[in-house]
Structures are given as C-alpha cells and as structure tokens.
C-alpha cells in the first residue's frame, strides 16, 4: 500500500481516484490489474511536479507509486520493468532524504526488499539473498530505534520475504529461523494488524512464513512444529480465500497440500482429505506444490560441511566453519550477515572456498552450497567495507573471483542458466577489482579475462548478444593490455 509518510493527502480528483483504485486492487490480491492506474498516478504527479522543484508531495507520491507499480509488474511477470520502477523509486526517496524532508530509511529498505523478490522471480537468487539481507538488517535497526513499535509489522513482513528467498537460494536453517520469527511477530501483533488497512497484505505474508516453517521443520523431522505452522497457515489462508482473488485461493490450496502431505507422512488418514480437497479445488496448483515438496530442500551449511568431511577427509577449518551456524555476538541468526562480523566473514569465506573445487567432482550439491555461502560472506564483507576487503584486495578478491567462476560454470552445466548468469554478473563485477593488479601479475590478468569471457558466454547463451559482445571486448582489451 502506498504510504504518504505524512507528506501529502490524496487529492479528490482523477489522481486520487486512480490511486484509490490501485490500492483497492492490491488489497484484494489483484495487483496484476493495478498497473495502469498506478502509471496514471505517476503521470499526473509528474505533471504537478514539473516546473516546481520543491513540490515534494508530488515527488513522494511518484516514488511511492513506482514502488507499488513494481509489485504489479512482478505480478504480471514483467520483472525487468519492475526493476526499472524500483530504480526510479530509490532515486525519488533518496532525493527526498537528501533534501531533509523525509527520513526514507524504511522506504529504501522496502525498495531493497521488493528488488530482492524481483531478482528471485528472475532466478537471480544470489543477488536476491544479499538484497534481502540488507533489508532485514535495516528494519532490525528501525525496530530497535525510538519508533520501533510502528515498524514491527513491516519487520515481520520483511522477515517472511527473507525466509522465502533463503528457502530457495540459501540455508534452510536460516530460512526457518526467519520464518519462525516472522510468524511469532505476526501473532503477537495480531490486534494491531487486524486494525490496519493493510491487514490482508500482512495475512498473506503470514501464510508465506508458515509455509517455509512447515517445509523446513517437516524436512528436519520436527513434525509437531511443522503441523503447528500448517494449522496457522491454513486458518489464515481460509480467511483470505473469502476474497475474489485467485492468488488467495492458490494460497489456500497450497496450505491444504502441505498439511495433507505432512499428516500423511506420519500416518494420519485425515491427510488424504486435505489433499483431495486441494486437488478438487485447483489440481494445477496442488500438483505444483507436491512437486516442490518432493524436490526437498537445499543442503544446510552444516549438512554440506558434514558431507565435505566425508568426501574429502577431515579438514582443519571444520569446527570454525560449523560455528557459523550459530549467531555472532549481538546478532540473531536469520540472515547470512548474522553468521559473523564483516572482518571474519572474508576469512571464513576463504576457508569455505578452499573446499569447493575439490568437492565439485565428488558432491556437487554440497560444493555449491558451500560456494554460495562463501560468496555471500565475501559480498557482505565487501559491502560493509571491511579492512580485509578494502586493503588486502590482492589476497581475497582473486579467491572470490575464482569461486564465482567455478560455481557459475557448475550451475550452468547443471541446467540452471538464470542462477549461473546471476553469479556470472557478480564474477565480472569482482573481476573489475583485479584490473589494477593485472599489469604486474599475469595470473590476475588471466583470471579477470576468464571472468569477463565467462560472463559474455552466459549472456550470449541467454540471448543478450549486445551485452555479450561488450563483455568479450572487455576480456580482449584486458588480454591486450589496453
């Protein structure tokens, strides 16, 4: 829902009508229909702002509506356009913050969270995990501040989104921690949320959190916790299904499938009734959810390390790396950045990276889990501008670049082209940091060139020939020393 932040009151004219229509559609779970109304709001607000550089009300309305438009575009499968809308929203909020008329911290965190979901929709899971990590940290700081109480519902929302992304592209142990925290917070805030105009939206995020909780707890054999999450999710989804939203009905079907599968796994006959109702209601959705559950979850970090020790033999860093499964001092372990401090992150990432190449040929799934975790730690250490990543670039960045090259190639060979491309983009970006060392170090030059070339190959394979040409040209110029 568009939040004015107190800067403006919706006008009673065409702009106000378009804004209200879009908001009603979003609340009804019909975001894919809201786009044209949101675009009209942006057009009218832009007209009002033209020639008036200090018309901050209109500028805030544009930024807020661009943010909401991104959600509608995502619902329509137009993810590239959604990213462009989010970029405009970020620029707008940053301008308002720089002008001193708005504390945009929560708005910018929301932009980052929605961008994470957009990247996940595109299959760019590595970027999604890191974007959402930043959003969770930002909201965690807001909740700990003076106005913390008012931010709690949105903190729960972002935790639920974080859980969903981590379930797909990260450590399930982190995912379930985030999901359980979101569920607990939603339930604690039930009275406050039920009085909110966004109550239906929050209820949808509660269903997201309980689905992740149920999946992970069931996979780990904690069936009592899984069924508890199932019951909360099914009750909430049943209430939502009273709307005319096809999305809400699919959520109900998914909740029925989960409960049915989990009851069946412990021999409870009522599970069959849940599954039968789900298939009778929407067989396509029920089949999709069953297939998702049957695929299982990625390795946890601890499971991947255990597999690595079995396949490679004991290694000296094992216990230091297993310790990453416990939160760092002062942190809650629901994000990758909660594993350790930024300085240690680069060291632990290096130790993980050492295991990846020898493990790839023996247990690719475990190797890729360790590789992704290493990448996340390198990226967090870099984003937080740790001393090691800033001043020991020649030590750590080549390890990061080679890691990205290895796991991107492995994902591409495994048929996961979107995730391979995402990692290939990171690979090329990290390789840029090697260029200052390339003139005096042939190994650095070859590695940077290989990263650019690999990214170019992936771009070509996914149909972006113009960008592929630029990447190959950069590799060639590097090799020629220009």
Structure description:
- This is Tetratricopeptide (TPR) repeat protein.
- The protein is mainly alpha-helical and 482 residues long.
- Among the domains are: 149-297, Tetratricopeptide repeat domain (Serine Threonine Protein Phosphatase 5, Tetratricopeptide repeat, Alpha Horseshoe), CATH 1.25.40; 301-480, Serine Threonine Protein Phosphatase 5, Tetratricopeptide repeat.
- The protein is built from 24 helices and no strands.
- The protein has helices spanning 14-27, 35-49, 56-75, 79-98, 105-121, 125-143, 148-169, 172-188, 190-194, 199-219, 223-240, 246-265, 270-281, 283-295, 301-312, 318-322, 342-360, 364-383, 387-391, 393-413, 417-432, 435-438, 442-461, 465-480.
- The longest helix has 22 residues, at 148-169.
- It is globular.
- The protein starts with 13 loop residues before the first helix and ends with a helix.
